[in-house]
Design brief:
alpha/beta, N-(1-d-carboxylethyl)-l-norvaline Dehydrogenase, domain 2, five-stranded parallel sheet, three-stranded mixed sheet
Length: about 500
Protein backbone atom coordinates (compact mmCIF):
# COMPACT_ATOMS: atom_id res chain seq x y z
CA UNK A 1 0.00 0.00 0.00
CA UNK A 2 2.74 2.42 0.98
CA UNK A 3 4.86 1.63 -2.06
CA UNK A 4 1.94 2.15 -4.42
CA UNK A 5 0.94 5.44 -2.84
CA UNK A 6 4.51 6.68 -2.96
CA UNK A 7 5.07 5.63 -6.54
CA UNK A 8 2.42 8.06 -7.76
CA UNK A 9 3.67 10.90 -5.53
CA UNK A 10 7.43 10.70 -6.03
CA UNK A 11 7.56 12.22 -9.56
CA UNK A 12 6.14 15.45 -8.14
CA UNK A 13 9.31 15.82 -6.10
CA UNK A 14 10.99 17.24 -9.17
CA UNK A 15 8.73 20.25 -9.67
CA UNK A 16 10.85 23.24 -10.67
CA UNK A 17 9.71 26.82 -10.27
CA UNK A 18 11.12 29.39 -12.68
CA UNK A 19 9.86 32.92 -13.05
CA UNK A 20 9.98 34.49 -16.53
CA UNK A 21 11.72 37.78 -15.83
CA UNK A 22 14.27 38.70 -18.45
CA UNK A 23 14.43 42.49 -18.38
CA UNK A 24 17.17 44.22 -16.45
CA UNK A 25 15.98 47.36 -14.72
CA UNK A 26 17.28 50.79 -15.65
CA UNK A 27 19.52 52.07 -12.88
CA UNK A 28 17.76 54.47 -10.51
CA UNK A 29 18.63 58.13 -10.94
CA UNK A 30 20.59 59.94 -8.24
CA UNK A 31 23.37 58.77 -5.94
CA UNK A 32 21.21 56.69 -3.58
CA UNK A 33 19.37 53.62 -4.89
CA UNK A 34 15.62 53.50 -4.39
CA UNK A 35 14.64 51.15 -1.53
CA UNK A 36 12.15 48.34 -2.12
CA UNK A 37 8.83 49.44 -0.57
CA UNK A 38 5.13 49.23 -1.43
CA UNK A 39 5.34 52.68 -3.03
CA UNK A 40 8.35 51.76 -5.15
CA UNK A 41 7.58 48.13 -5.93
CA UNK A 42 6.00 48.80 -9.31
CA UNK A 43 9.37 50.11 -10.48
CA UNK A 44 11.01 46.73 -10.01
CA UNK A 45 12.00 44.61 -12.99
CA UNK A 46 10.79 41.48 -11.27
CA UNK A 47 7.65 39.40 -10.97
CA UNK A 48 5.34 41.25 -8.56
CA UNK A 49 2.54 39.98 -6.29
CA UNK A 50 -0.58 39.49 -8.40
CA UNK A 51 -2.97 40.37 -5.58
CA UNK A 52 -4.01 43.60 -3.89
CA UNK A 53 -1.73 43.67 -0.86
CA UNK A 54 -3.99 46.18 0.92
CA UNK A 55 -6.62 43.45 1.20
CA UNK A 56 -4.33 40.91 2.91
CA UNK A 57 -5.23 40.05 6.51
CA UNK A 58 -3.21 37.82 8.85
CA UNK A 59 -3.99 34.14 9.28
CA UNK A 60 -0.57 32.63 10.07
CA UNK A 61 2.00 33.42 12.74
CA UNK A 62 5.40 32.03 11.82
CA UNK A 63 8.07 31.53 14.48
CA UNK A 64 11.60 31.77 13.10
CA UNK A 65 11.26 34.07 10.12
CA UNK A 66 14.63 33.46 8.45
CA UNK A 67 15.94 32.83 4.97
CA UNK A 68 14.53 29.33 4.65
CA UNK A 69 11.01 30.34 5.59
CA UNK A 70 11.12 33.29 3.19
CA UNK A 71 12.31 31.08 0.32
CA UNK A 72 9.86 28.27 1.06
CA UNK A 73 6.62 28.50 3.07
CA UNK A 74 6.21 32.25 2.50
CA UNK A 75 6.44 31.67 -1.26
CA UNK A 76 3.72 29.01 -1.20
CA UNK A 77 1.53 31.34 0.88
CA UNK A 78 2.27 34.16 -1.56
CA UNK A 79 0.87 31.99 -4.34
CA UNK A 80 -2.21 31.18 -2.25
CA UNK A 81 -3.05 34.82 -1.52
CA UNK A 82 -4.32 35.38 -5.04
CA UNK A 83 -7.30 33.13 -4.25
CA UNK A 84 -7.68 33.82 -0.50
CA UNK A 85 -6.45 37.04 1.10
CA UNK A 86 -6.96 35.92 4.72
CA UNK A 87 -3.66 34.08 5.11
CA UNK A 88 -1.06 36.82 5.48
CA UNK A 89 1.95 35.95 7.65
CA UNK A 90 3.03 37.61 10.85
CA UNK A 91 6.69 36.72 11.14
CA UNK A 92 8.39 36.36 14.53
CA UNK A 93 12.14 36.39 15.15
CA UNK A 94 12.83 34.75 18.49
CA UNK A 95 16.05 36.51 19.50
CA UNK A 96 17.54 38.99 17.06
CA UNK A 97 15.89 42.07 15.52
CA UNK A 98 17.92 41.94 12.29
CA UNK A 99 15.16 40.61 10.04
CA UNK A 100 12.57 43.05 11.36
CA UNK A 101 15.01 45.95 11.06
CA UNK A 102 15.79 44.99 7.45
CA UNK A 103 12.25 44.33 6.24
CA UNK A 104 10.07 46.70 8.26
CA UNK A 105 11.25 49.75 6.23
CA UNK A 106 10.37 47.69 3.13
CA UNK A 107 6.80 47.05 4.34
CA UNK A 108 7.77 43.39 4.72
CA UNK A 109 8.55 43.04 1.01
CA UNK A 110 11.68 41.22 -0.14
CA UNK A 111 13.18 39.77 -3.30
CA UNK A 112 13.36 36.04 -3.95
CA UNK A 113 16.14 35.28 -6.45
CA UNK A 114 16.00 31.84 -8.07
CA UNK A 115 19.41 30.81 -9.44
CA UNK A 116 20.02 27.84 -11.68
CA UNK A 117 23.59 28.51 -12.70
CA UNK A 118 22.70 30.10 -16.01
CA UNK A 119 20.35 32.83 -14.85
CA UNK A 120 18.89 34.65 -11.86
CA UNK A 121 15.13 35.20 -11.83
CA UNK A 122 13.87 37.77 -9.27
CA UNK A 123 10.43 37.84 -7.72
CA UNK A 124 8.98 40.17 -5.07
CA UNK A 125 7.26 38.32 -2.18
CA UNK A 126 4.52 40.12 -0.24
CA UNK A 127 3.07 37.46 2.07
CA UNK A 128 4.92 38.65 5.21
CA UNK A 129 2.80 41.56 6.45
CA UNK A 130 4.12 42.03 9.99
CA UNK A 131 7.41 41.41 11.81
CA UNK A 132 7.86 40.94 15.56
CA UNK A 133 10.79 40.10 17.84
CA UNK A 134 10.08 37.85 20.83
CA UNK A 135 13.19 39.07 22.64
CA UNK A 136 11.60 42.54 22.87
CA UNK A 137 8.86 41.04 25.02
CA UNK A 138 6.37 38.20 24.74
CA UNK A 139 3.28 40.45 24.81
CA UNK A 140 3.00 41.42 21.12
CA UNK A 141 3.88 37.88 20.01
CA UNK A 142 1.26 36.32 22.28
CA UNK A 143 -1.28 38.91 21.10
CA UNK A 144 -0.66 37.81 17.51
CA UNK A 145 -0.87 34.12 18.43
CA UNK A 146 -4.11 34.57 20.39
CA UNK A 147 -5.81 36.69 17.71
CA UNK A 148 -8.87 34.67 16.57
CA UNK A 149 -7.78 35.33 12.98
CA UNK A 150 -4.64 33.26 13.58
CA UNK A 151 -5.49 29.72 12.55
CA UNK A 152 -1.99 28.36 11.96
CA UNK A 153 1.22 28.85 13.92
CA UNK A 154 4.10 27.48 11.86
CA UNK A 155 7.77 27.33 12.72
CA UNK A 156 11.28 26.99 11.32
CA UNK A 157 13.44 27.37 14.41
CA UNK A 158 16.07 24.67 13.64
CA UNK A 159 16.56 21.64 15.81
CA UNK A 160 17.91 23.55 18.81
CA UNK A 161 14.78 25.72 19.01
CA UNK A 162 12.75 22.74 20.23
CA UNK A 163 14.63 22.64 23.57
CA UNK A 164 14.66 18.87 23.44
CA UNK A 165 17.00 15.92 23.69
CA UNK A 166 17.73 14.96 20.05
CA UNK A 167 18.49 11.36 21.03
CA UNK A 168 15.04 10.78 22.62
CA UNK A 169 12.85 13.48 21.11
CA UNK A 170 11.68 14.51 24.59
CA UNK A 171 11.64 17.97 26.14
CA UNK A 172 14.83 18.79 28.03
CA UNK A 173 13.59 20.10 31.39
CA UNK A 174 17.14 21.14 32.25
CA UNK A 175 17.33 23.52 29.29
CA UNK A 176 18.06 27.02 30.60
CA UNK A 177 15.32 28.58 28.49
CA UNK A 178 12.72 26.07 29.65
CA UNK A 179 13.64 26.59 33.29
CA UNK A 180 13.39 30.37 32.85
CA UNK A 181 9.98 30.13 31.14
CA UNK A 182 8.56 27.92 33.87
CA UNK A 183 9.82 30.36 36.49
CA UNK A 184 8.06 33.35 34.91
CA UNK A 185 4.56 32.32 33.78
CA UNK A 186 3.10 34.58 31.14
CA UNK A 187 6.48 35.80 29.82
CA UNK A 188 7.85 32.91 27.74
CA UNK A 189 10.79 33.18 25.39
CA UNK A 190 11.18 29.61 24.10
CA UNK A 191 9.11 27.94 21.40
CA UNK A 192 7.44 25.43 23.76
CA UNK A 193 6.75 28.22 26.23
CA UNK A 194 5.21 30.54 23.63
CA UNK A 195 3.02 27.82 22.16
CA UNK A 196 1.71 26.62 25.52
CA UNK A 197 1.05 30.11 26.86
CA UNK A 198 -0.76 31.17 23.68
CA UNK A 199 -2.90 28.02 23.76
CA UNK A 200 -3.62 28.58 27.46
CA UNK A 201 -4.82 32.11 26.77
CA UNK A 202 -6.96 30.98 23.82
CA UNK A 203 -8.54 28.26 25.95
CA UNK A 204 -9.22 30.72 28.75
CA UNK A 205 -10.80 33.19 26.32
CA UNK A 206 -12.91 30.53 24.59
CA UNK A 207 -11.04 30.89 21.29
CA UNK A 208 -10.55 27.76 19.21
CA UNK A 209 -6.93 26.55 19.12
CA UNK A 210 -4.69 27.14 16.14
CA UNK A 211 -2.98 24.33 14.22
CA UNK A 212 0.75 24.01 14.96
CA UNK A 213 2.74 23.27 11.79
CA UNK A 214 6.40 22.31 12.17
CA UNK A 215 8.55 22.89 9.09
CA UNK A 216 11.88 21.83 10.60
CA UNK A 217 14.09 18.86 9.77
CA UNK A 218 13.04 16.57 12.61
CA UNK A 219 11.80 12.99 12.35
CA UNK A 220 8.00 12.99 12.67
CA UNK A 221 8.25 16.71 13.36
CA UNK A 222 4.55 17.12 14.12
CA UNK A 223 4.44 14.25 16.60
CA UNK A 224 7.76 15.31 18.10
CA UNK A 225 6.53 18.87 18.62
CA UNK A 226 3.22 17.62 20.06
CA UNK A 227 5.14 15.53 22.59
CA UNK A 228 7.44 18.43 23.54
CA UNK A 229 4.54 20.86 23.93
CA UNK A 230 2.56 18.33 25.95
CA UNK A 231 5.51 17.67 28.24
CA UNK A 232 6.05 21.39 28.79
CA UNK A 233 2.35 21.91 29.49
CA UNK A 234 2.40 19.08 32.03
CA UNK A 235 5.15 20.90 33.92
CA UNK A 236 3.22 24.16 33.82
CA UNK A 237 -0.41 22.99 34.18
CA UNK A 238 -1.33 19.32 33.88
CA UNK A 239 -4.97 20.05 33.00
CA UNK A 240 -3.79 22.16 30.08
CA UNK A 241 -1.66 19.27 28.83
CA UNK A 242 -4.73 17.06 28.50
CA UNK A 243 -6.67 19.80 26.69
CA UNK A 244 -3.84 20.31 24.20
CA UNK A 245 -3.62 16.58 23.53
CA UNK A 246 -7.34 16.39 22.82
CA UNK A 247 -7.82 19.60 20.86
CA UNK A 248 -4.67 20.81 19.08
CA UNK A 249 -3.51 19.47 15.71
CA UNK A 250 0.22 19.05 15.02
CA UNK A 251 0.51 17.92 11.38
CA UNK A 252 3.90 16.70 10.23
CA UNK A 253 5.52 18.13 7.13
CA UNK A 254 8.60 17.67 5.02
CA UNK A 255 10.28 20.69 3.45
CA UNK A 256 13.06 20.86 0.90
CA UNK A 257 14.82 23.76 -0.75
CA UNK A 258 18.47 24.75 -0.62
CA UNK A 259 18.74 28.28 0.75
CA UNK A 260 22.23 29.67 1.42
CA UNK A 261 22.96 32.72 3.53
CA UNK A 262 22.56 36.04 1.71
CA UNK A 263 25.82 37.76 0.75
CA UNK A 264 26.62 41.34 -0.16
CA UNK A 265 27.32 40.11 -3.69
CA UNK A 266 23.74 38.78 -3.80
CA UNK A 267 22.41 42.18 -2.73
CA UNK A 268 24.44 43.93 -5.42
CA UNK A 269 23.32 41.53 -8.15
CA UNK A 270 19.66 41.71 -7.14
CA UNK A 271 19.72 45.51 -7.04
CA UNK A 272 21.15 45.53 -10.56
CA UNK A 273 18.45 43.12 -11.74
CA UNK A 274 15.45 44.79 -10.13
CA UNK A 275 16.53 48.42 -9.92
CA UNK A 276 15.65 48.53 -6.20
CA UNK A 277 17.81 48.15 -3.11
CA UNK A 278 16.76 45.27 -0.86
CA UNK A 279 18.36 45.05 2.58
CA UNK A 280 17.76 41.31 2.88
CA UNK A 281 16.87 39.45 -0.31
CA UNK A 282 16.94 35.67 -0.32
CA UNK A 283 18.63 33.41 -2.87
CA UNK A 284 17.56 29.86 -3.64
CA UNK A 285 17.45 27.10 -6.25
CA UNK A 286 14.65 26.28 -8.72
CA UNK A 287 13.72 23.06 -6.87
CA UNK A 288 11.17 23.26 -4.07
CA UNK A 289 9.12 20.66 -2.23
CA UNK A 290 6.60 20.68 0.59
CA UNK A 291 4.75 17.55 1.73
CA UNK A 292 2.15 18.18 4.43
CA UNK A 293 -0.03 15.91 6.54
CA UNK A 294 -3.52 17.20 5.81
CA UNK A 295 -4.81 17.80 9.35
CA UNK A 296 -5.99 21.43 9.74
CA UNK A 297 -9.20 21.62 11.80
CA UNK A 298 -9.02 25.44 11.85
CA UNK A 299 -8.60 25.67 8.06
CA UNK A 300 -5.63 26.26 5.78
CA UNK A 301 -4.68 27.95 2.52
CA UNK A 302 -5.01 25.88 -0.63
CA UNK A 303 -1.42 24.73 -0.43
CA UNK A 304 -1.94 22.08 -3.08
CA UNK A 305 -2.83 24.75 -5.65
CA UNK A 306 0.56 26.33 -4.92
CA UNK A 307 2.38 23.04 -5.56
CA UNK A 308 2.53 21.43 -2.12
CA UNK A 309 1.51 17.80 -1.63
CA UNK A 310 -1.21 17.12 0.95
CA UNK A 311 -0.93 13.51 2.11
CA UNK A 312 -2.10 11.19 4.86
CA UNK A 313 1.43 9.99 5.74
CA UNK A 314 4.50 12.22 5.51
CA UNK A 315 6.96 9.73 6.99
CA UNK A 316 8.23 8.11 3.75
CA UNK A 317 9.05 11.52 2.24
CA UNK A 318 10.53 12.76 5.50
CA UNK A 319 12.88 9.80 5.90
CA UNK A 320 13.94 10.03 2.27
CA UNK A 321 14.89 13.68 2.66
CA UNK A 322 16.50 13.44 6.10
CA UNK A 323 18.58 10.43 5.19
CA UNK A 324 19.48 10.99 1.55
CA UNK A 325 19.66 14.77 1.32
CA UNK A 326 20.44 15.94 4.85
CA UNK A 327 22.68 12.99 5.73
CA UNK A 328 24.74 13.45 2.56
CA UNK A 329 24.76 17.25 3.01
CA UNK A 330 26.17 16.99 6.54
CA UNK A 331 28.77 14.43 5.50
CA UNK A 332 29.84 16.62 2.59
CA UNK A 333 29.93 19.71 4.81
CA UNK A 334 32.23 18.18 7.45
CA UNK A 335 34.63 16.70 4.93
CA UNK A 336 34.41 19.91 2.89
CA UNK A 337 35.35 21.96 5.93
CA UNK A 338 38.19 19.61 6.81
CA UNK A 339 39.79 19.67 3.35
CA UNK A 340 39.16 23.36 2.64
CA UNK A 341 36.09 23.56 0.39
CA UNK A 342 34.07 26.69 1.11
CA UNK A 343 30.89 25.75 -0.76
CA UNK A 344 28.88 22.63 -1.48
CA UNK A 345 29.48 23.02 -5.22
CA UNK A 346 33.24 23.21 -4.61
CA UNK A 347 33.09 20.05 -2.51
CA UNK A 348 31.07 18.23 -5.19
CA UNK A 349 33.78 19.06 -7.73
CA UNK A 350 36.14 17.00 -5.55
CA UNK A 351 35.83 13.54 -7.10
CA UNK A 352 36.57 11.67 -3.86
CA UNK A 353 33.92 13.61 -1.93
CA UNK A 354 31.37 13.25 -4.72
CA UNK A 355 31.97 9.48 -4.62
CA UNK A 356 31.38 9.49 -0.85
CA UNK A 357 28.15 11.47 -1.29
CA UNK A 358 26.87 8.86 -3.73
CA UNK A 359 27.81 6.08 -1.29
CA UNK A 360 25.99 7.81 1.62
CA UNK A 361 22.89 8.32 -0.52
CA UNK A 362 22.89 4.70 -1.64
CA UNK A 363 23.33 3.40 1.91
CA UNK A 364 20.52 5.66 3.11
CA UNK A 365 18.26 4.60 0.22
CA UNK A 366 18.72 0.95 1.22
CA UNK A 367 16.99 1.69 4.54
CA UNK A 368 13.88 3.22 2.91
CA UNK A 369 10.63 1.50 2.01
CA UNK A 370 10.25 3.19 -1.37
CA UNK A 371 10.65 2.02 -4.97
CA UNK A 372 14.35 1.84 -5.88
CA UNK A 373 13.72 3.45 -9.27
CA UNK A 374 12.27 6.55 -7.59
CA UNK A 375 15.08 6.66 -5.04
CA UNK A 376 17.69 6.45 -7.81
CA UNK A 377 15.99 9.33 -9.57
CA UNK A 378 15.88 11.33 -6.35
CA UNK A 379 19.58 10.70 -5.68
CA UNK A 380 20.54 11.88 -9.18
CA UNK A 381 18.46 15.03 -8.72
CA UNK A 382 20.13 15.71 -5.36
CA UNK A 383 23.62 15.44 -6.80
CA UNK A 384 22.67 17.84 -9.59
CA UNK A 385 21.35 20.29 -7.02
CA UNK A 386 24.50 20.01 -4.91
CA UNK A 387 26.56 20.92 -7.98
CA UNK A 388 24.63 24.16 -8.66
CA UNK A 389 27.49 26.71 -8.68
CA UNK A 390 25.20 29.72 -8.42
CA UNK A 391 24.01 29.06 -4.86
CA UNK A 392 27.34 29.45 -3.00
CA UNK A 393 25.91 27.32 -0.17
CA UNK A 394 28.65 27.43 2.46
CA UNK A 395 29.79 24.19 4.05
CA UNK A 396 30.26 26.11 7.31
CA UNK A 397 26.54 26.93 7.36
CA UNK A 398 25.56 23.27 6.97
CA UNK A 399 28.13 22.21 9.57
CA UNK A 400 26.43 24.24 12.32
CA UNK A 401 24.54 22.54 15.17
CA UNK A 402 25.89 19.07 14.48
CA UNK A 403 24.87 17.74 17.90
CA UNK A 404 21.26 18.40 16.94
CA UNK A 405 21.49 17.21 13.33
CA UNK A 406 23.66 14.09 13.50
CA UNK A 407 21.10 11.93 15.40
CA UNK A 408 18.38 12.42 12.77
CA UNK A 409 20.56 12.61 9.67
CA UNK A 410 23.04 9.79 10.28
CA UNK A 411 22.61 7.87 13.55
CA UNK A 412 19.08 6.59 12.92
CA UNK A 413 20.07 5.54 9.41
CA UNK A 414 23.07 3.62 10.74
CA UNK A 415 20.90 1.90 13.34
CA UNK A 416 18.40 0.75 10.69
CA UNK A 417 21.10 -0.28 8.22
CA UNK A 418 22.84 -2.42 10.78
CA UNK A 419 19.58 -4.03 11.91
CA UNK A 420 18.88 -5.02 8.30
CA UNK A 421 22.41 -6.25 7.65
CA UNK A 422 23.07 -3.43 5.19
CA UNK A 423 26.31 -1.54 4.62
CA UNK A 424 26.91 1.74 6.53
CA UNK A 425 30.58 2.47 5.82
CA UNK A 426 29.91 5.84 4.16
CA UNK A 427 27.54 6.91 6.93
CA UNK A 428 30.21 6.02 9.50
CA UNK A 429 32.66 8.31 7.72
CA UNK A 430 30.20 11.18 8.08
CA UNK A 431 29.99 10.66 11.85
CA UNK A 432 33.77 10.34 12.16
CA UNK A 433 34.29 13.51 10.11
CA UNK A 434 32.03 15.40 12.52
CA UNK A 435 34.01 14.13 15.52
CA UNK A 436 37.30 15.11 13.86
CA UNK A 437 35.76 18.51 12.97
CA UNK A 438 35.10 19.10 16.68
CA UNK A 439 38.86 18.92 17.38
CA UNK A 440 39.61 21.93 15.16
CA UNK A 441 38.43 24.59 17.57
CA UNK A 442 35.25 26.48 18.49
CA UNK A 443 32.16 25.26 16.67
CA UNK A 444 28.72 26.83 16.25
CA UNK A 445 26.66 24.39 18.29
CA UNK A 446 24.45 24.44 21.41
CA UNK A 447 27.05 22.15 23.03
CA UNK A 448 30.05 24.18 21.88
CA UNK A 449 31.46 24.76 25.39
CA UNK A 450 31.35 21.07 26.17
CA UNK A 451 32.99 20.18 22.86
CA UNK A 452 35.74 22.73 23.48
CA UNK A 453 36.38 21.22 26.92
CA UNK A 454 36.65 17.71 25.45
CA UNK A 455 39.04 18.87 22.73
CA UNK A 456 41.25 20.54 25.34
CA UNK A 457 41.15 17.59 27.71
CA UNK A 458 41.84 14.76 25.27
CA UNK A 459 44.89 15.26 23.08
CA UNK A 460 44.86 11.70 21.81
CA UNK A 461 42.37 11.46 18.92
CA UNK A 462 41.11 8.01 19.92
CA UNK A 463 40.49 9.18 23.49
CA UNK A 464 38.73 12.28 22.18
CA UNK A 465 36.53 10.15 19.92
CA UNK A 466 35.65 7.89 22.86
CA UNK A 467 34.64 10.93 24.93
CA UNK A 468 32.39 12.29 22.19
CA UNK A 469 30.87 8.88 21.48
CA UNK A 470 30.00 8.58 25.18
CA UNK A 471 27.60 11.52 24.86
CA UNK A 472 24.23 9.81 25.13
CA UNK A 473 22.48 13.10 24.34
CA UNK A 474 23.74 12.62 20.78
CA UNK A 475 24.16 8.88 20.30
CA UNK A 476 21.62 7.42 22.71
CA UNK A 477 22.07 3.66 23.29
CA UNK A 478 24.70 3.46 20.53
CA UNK A 479 27.16 5.02 23.00
CA UNK A 480 27.35 1.55 24.57
CA UNK A 481 27.42 -0.46 21.32
CA UNK A 482 30.92 -1.61 20.42
CA UNK A 483 29.82 -2.50 16.87
CA UNK A 484 29.19 1.24 16.38
CA UNK A 485 31.84 2.96 18.51
CA UNK A 486 34.87 0.91 17.48
CA UNK A 487 34.78 1.62 13.71
CA UNK A 488 33.94 5.30 14.31
CA UNK A 489 36.84 5.57 16.75
CA UNK A 490 39.17 3.95 14.23
CA UNK A 491 38.09 6.30 11.44
CA UNK A 492 38.56 9.37 13.65
CA UNK A 493 42.07 8.17 14.55
CA UNK A 494 42.86 7.61 10.87
CA UNK A 495 41.84 11.20 10.08
CA UNK A 496 43.97 12.55 12.90
CA UNK A 497 47.03 10.58 11.76
CA UNK A 498 46.77 10.83 7.97
CA UNK A 499 44.38 13.72 7.36
CA UNK A 500 40.68 13.52 6.45
CA UNK A 501 41.36 12.14 2.99
CA UNK A 502 42.96 9.06 4.55
CA UNK A 503 39.49 8.01 5.75
CA UNK A 504 37.78 8.38 2.37
CA UNK A 505 36.82 5.23 0.42
CA UNK A 506 39.77 4.00 -1.63
Amino acid sequence: MLAGRTRTAIPRLFRERFEDVTERADPPSGDEPVRLTERAVDRAAARLPAYDRARITPGIVHLGVGNFHRAHQAVYVDDCLLADTTWGIRGVSLRRPDMRDALAPQDGLYTLAVKDGASTQPRIIGSVIDLLVAADGAGPVLAAMTDPATRIVSLTVTEKGYCHDPATGDLDPGNDGIKADLARPGQPATVPGLLVEALRQRRQAGIAPFTVLSCDNLPANGRTLARIVGQYAALADDSLSGWITGNVAFPSSMVDRIVPATSDADRTEIQALTGLADAWPVVTEPFTQWVIEDVFPAGRPDFSAAGAELVADVEPFEKMKLRMLNGAHSTLAYFGQLVGHETVADAMNDAALAQLVTQVMNEAAATLDLPSRDLDQYGRALRTRFRNPALKHRTAQIAMDGSQKIPQRLIETIRDARADGKNWDGLARGVAAWIHFLRRGPVDDPMSERFAALANRYGDPADHADAVLAMREVFGPLSDAAWFTEPIRALAATMAEGGPRAALPQ
